[in-house]
Design goal:
This protein is α+β, with helices and mostly antiparallel strands and 204 residues long. It has one domain: Ribosomal protein L5 (50s Ribosomal Protein L5, Chain: A). Helix content is 37%, strand content 17%. It has 5 helices and 5 strands; from the N terminus they run ααβαββαββα. It has a 5-stranded antiparallel beta sheet with strand order 2-3-1-5-4, sandwiched between helices. Helix 2 crosses helix 5. The longest helix is centred in the first third of the chain and has 18 residues.
C-alpha cells in the first residue's frame, strides 16, 4: 500500500473511531471554555471564526539513516508508540553532496494526527509530557510562523510515558508542529495558551 493510500485509510479509520468513541476531554474544554473566551477577546461574530486545531504533525529526522537504513524502522516504532498511529517514511527531496544525501532515500518518519487523536495527543503533551521534561521553564512564545502554526522540539522521546526505555538503545528527538486555523501569531498564541500550553512570559 502506498503512503498516500495508507494515510487515506487512517483518516477513514480515525473518522469511524471519532463516531464511536467518547469526545476527547480537551475538545470538550475547547468548545465550552476556550471558544467563548476567544470570541470575547477578539470580537469574532460567530463560533466558526474562532481559531481551532487542524492537525498535529510529529516528525523525526534520522540523518544516520544514510549509513544505516535500519534506523528508519526504529524511528517509526518510536513515533508509533508515542502517537498511537502508523507513521510514514519521509524521503530526501534533493541531492546534497556535502551530506552524502541522494534524493528519494529515506531520511526519517512522520505522523499526522487529526480529529480526536490530535486532541488526545495535545492533552497528553500538556498535562503529562511537558511536566516530565528536565529543567522545563515553559515554551518559547516566538516559535510561531505567522500562518497559524506553532513548532516545538522534544529532545528525548523518553519523556513520553508510553515509551519503555528498555526498548530503545538511544534517546531520539522529535519535532512537533501544531497547525491551527488562526490567522495571526497573536490569535494562535492566545488560542494555545487558553488550551493550556505553558508559554514563558513574552520576552522571557
Amino acid at each position: 500500500m502506498s503512503e498516500e493510500a495508507q494515510q487515506e485509510a487512517q483518516t477513514e479509520e480515525e473518522a469511524q473511531e471519532e463516531i464511536e468513541a467518547p469526545e476527547p476531554r480537551l475538545k470538550g474544554f475547547y468548545k465550552e471554555e476556550v471558544v467563548p473566551q476567544l470570541m470575547e477577546r477578539f470580537g469574532y461574530e460567530n463560533r466558526h471564526a474562532v481559531p481551532g486545531l487542524q492537525k498535529i504533525v510529529l516528525n523525526m529526522g534520522v540523518g544516520e539513516a544514510t549509513e544505516d537504513s535500519s534506523l528508519i524502522g526504529v524511528a517509526k516504532e518510536v513515533l508509533r508508540v508515542v502517537s498511537g498511529q502508523e507513521p510514514v517514511t519521509t524521503l530526501a527531496r534533493k541531492n546534497v553532496a556535502g551530506f552524502h544525501l541522494r534524493g528519494g532515500i529515506p531520511i526519517g518518519a512522520k505522523v499526522t494526527l487529526r480529529r480526536a487523536r490530535m486532541y488526545e495527543f495535545l492533552d497528553r503533551l500538556i498535562s503529562v509530557v511537558m511536566p516530565r521534561i528536565r529543567d522545563f521553564r515553559g515554551l518559547s512564545p516566538k516559535s510561531f510562523d505567522g500562518t497559524g502554526n506553532y513548532s516545538l522540539g522534544i529532545n528525548e522521546h523518553f519523556v513520553f510515558p508510553e515509551v519503555n526505555a528498555d526498548d530503545f538503545e538511544h534517546a531520539w528527538g522529535l519535532d512537533i508542529t501544531i497547525c491551527t486555523s488562526a490567522e495571526s501569531d497573536e490569535e494562535c498564541y492566545e488560542f494555545l495558551r487558553m488550551m493550556g500550553m505553558p508559554f514563558r512570559q513574552q520576552g522571557g
